[in-house]
Design goal:
Strand content: 15-25%
Structural class: alpha/beta
Radius of gyration: 15 Å
Number of helices: 6
Distance between the termini: 33 Å
CATH superfamily: MoaB/Mog-like domain
Order of helices and strands: EHEHEHEHEEHH
Strand order of the largest sheet: 2-1-3-6-5-4
Helix content: 25-40%
CATH architecture: 3-Layer(aba) Sandwich
Number of strands: 6
Mean pLDDT: 94
Low-confidence stretches: none
CATH topology: Molybdenum Cofactor Biosythetic Enzyme, Chain A
CATH class: Alpha Beta
Shape: globular
Largest sheet: 6 strands, mixed
């Protein structure tokens, strides 16, 4: 919309993996490239092992960092015993954005059919920070960004978007 200027978000990217390094983190690279191309700022980036407490701890540190508006994690959203990213996210959420997982599944169905049921992508809010947990494949990261996040993290997207309500996410924490 012409009367709204783009407002860049400060986004942290967390790759959850016991095996990936920065040199071979294609999913993290996909997210970093897309958020930069959209005009957002990379606030931080790291890799964390598949450990629920460690993942939740990292999310909490970023939630407590005023320079981080959004956290996007990739990896650990599947069904195996090592996949604990969703549980770690839910450990810190104040509110879950239920429809995110639903919309992501609909998008995935068009690409990978019924295999989409194996993803547990999710999103929520805590401490005024948006948190998104995406699968660990570069394709899933591209799909989530290109078809959901690029729009919802853009103030110009109408009829509504995540950015316009960002100042109100933590209003319950402020005194009245």
């Amino acid at each position: 919309m012409a009367d709204r200027d783009f407002l860049p978000c400060r986004i942290a990217v967390l790759t959850v993996s016991d095996t990936r390094t920065m040199e071979d983190d294609r999913s993290g690279d996909a997210l970093v490239g897309r958020l930069a191309a959209a005009g957002h700022v990379l606030a931080d980036r790291t890799i964390e092992r598949d450990d629920r407490a460690a993942i939740a701890g990292h999310l909490r540190r970023w939630i407590d960092t005023p320079e981080v508006d959004v956290v996007i994690s990739t990896g650990g959203t599947g069904l195996t015993g090592r996949d604990v990213t969703v549980e770690a996210h839910r450990d810190v959420y104040e509110k879950e954005i239920d429809a995110f997982g639903t919309v992501f599944t609909l998008i995935s169905m068009r690409k990978i059919g019924t295999s989409a049921v194996q993803s547990r992508a999710c999103a929520g809010v805590a401490g005024g920070t948006y948190l998104f947990a995406l699968p660990g494949s570069p394709g899933a990261c591209r799909d989530a960004w290109d078809e959901i996040l690029v729009h919802q993290l853009d103030l110009r997207h109408l009829p509504c978007n995540f950015v316009e309500i960002m100042p109100r996410l933590d209003e319950h924490l402020r005194r009245k």
